[in-house]
Amino acid sequence: SATPNLKLGLILAGWALIFLLSYKVKTTEVMEAKMWDPYEILGIDNGEKEETITRAYRKLSLKWHPDKVGKDLKEKAGEMMAEINRAHKTLTNAEARENYEKYGNPDGMQTQSMGIALPKLLVEAHTSPFVLALYGLVFGFIMPFYVGRWWYNSTRYQKDHILNPTMSTFFKNIREHISQRNLIELLTAASEFAEDDLKYRPADEAALKALVEKIRRVSQIYANDMFSAPKKFTGKDVWKANILLHAHFFRVKIDDGELADQQQQVVMTALTLVHRGLLQISTTHNWYTCSTLLMNISQMLVQGVYCYDAPLIQLPGITWENQPKIFKEKNLYSNHQLMRMTAGEQRKALSLLNDKQFEEAIQVAKTIPRLEIARVLLTVVGDKAITPASIVTLIVKVRIANAPNKIVPRGKGVAVADIEDISDEDTAAIENFVADFGKREKETKQTPPEAYCPYFAGRKDSQWWLSFANYQSGKLVVPPVRISDLVSERVVVLQFQAPPQKETYRFHLSIKSDSYIGNDVMQEVQMTVVDRSTLPSEPAIVDDISEPEEDSIAAQMAQLRGQQAGARRGDDESSDED
Fold this sequence. Notes:
The chain has helices spanning about 1-25, 40, 50-65, 75-90, 95-105, 120-125, 130-155, 165-175, 180-190, 205-220, 235-250, 255-285, 290-305, 325-330, 335-340, 345-350, 355-365, 425-445, 555-575; strands at about 370-380, 390-400, 465-470, 475-485, 490-495, 505-515, 520-530. The protein is an alpha+beta fold. The chain has a 4-stranded antiparallel sheet, covered by helices on one side. It has a 3-stranded antiparallel sheet with strand order 1-2-5, with no helix packed on it. Helix 3 (about 50-65) runs antiparallel to helix 4 (about 75-90) and helix 12 (about 255-285) runs antiparallel to helix 13.
């Protein structure tokens, strides 16, 4: 569009103006203001006596008197005589000399004024109408227009740069128990897709209809799900965004170049809306199932796949046409399954690919991370058991099994213990590990690898969500944690409050990729809450404070307090008898 080109032109013009001003500032000669000095005018040293001053004055008067010079120097001689007379009067008059020595001026303290030097063009009479017109244009139209537009745009968006109407639509229509299809329809109802760059245009009608027919054929054959228009949100902009998203999910090629560019923008906008909009609302309500479905949609957007697709379709050369054949003939479904085969078995399983396609598929399959949960620990720091309403610490260590770099950087100057080597009963070691965790976490930040996503327009780092949910209630215990720096190993530490009842609870620990399908791991975790009476008793505190010596001030004060207390008790007893 023309807007980015205009912005680029304005930026370049602004930088050119800055360089021009910098050059002018550097090359302009600064004229320092010269202080008026009567001694310098008379050609004598500071502090000379009055006889010397008068002698110098007479000598200069003879030299510069207008009657003593030629006609060509009369004007200059008049100026010089004025300065000589002023200098002589300043140095011979006591009051004028005192003023000069105090204020630098024989007339006393002078007021100072500051001004701005303007080009003559701006102040000359014949150019004043144009200058006023320019001022009126800049301060009366251009500046209010851009300030108003900035203010309007700032009030339209939330802090995550999502339109306020979009968040309002999401809040009103999202539910805890909602299908993935309805979530996608709600996503396309965002006001962002009604903006100028993405909104429906009548000229798109023919291309969109042809695209719908292609999507329906593919969805019916390979997904067993007929693509149809949204039932709740019926606007043209919603329908267009829905078509472009499903064309991305089913990898249907768009012949129209402008529509293809809009599709990439729709996909990237949708990913932002999922991460910063819908997922935030869902996790705020602690909805585990809804949040999981939104994480699935994130994977679909990045990889360009439909829900429940075989993970193998993420590899180059694997398409909607040959993937069902590979599964039916070779019983091959996932990337991890492929990587467990020998080289001969891999080539046989992917016999539908030529040699070049096979090599590319294997290289990509090697880079797709295979996640493992190395250790899960639920503990109350400092205690050997979990009691009602106590603060429970969840420690999870995850590992990329096929990471190219197995070395994990440790914190500088910190003795780091591996949580896998610490037993559940070693409360002291666990306490030290948790105490040092925050310091190590700041010092071990790493850059995650880039995800392989050829259908996504832009770089996407491979990141993960860690969720911990109650099995019985289906609610998130804590909001999902975004793991953005997992390269080889990572430890996550969370805290939550234990339930108030004594019981054995079951939790779901889930770690999902935001970029790949088929890489998620889940583990069931049990936690038993016991009565606090089962904990060992606290050791008695030994009072090692000795009694003060009789002669000390402390002993005398203690004795005095004892006497006062005894007197008060005596008064109380006598009053009771009365």
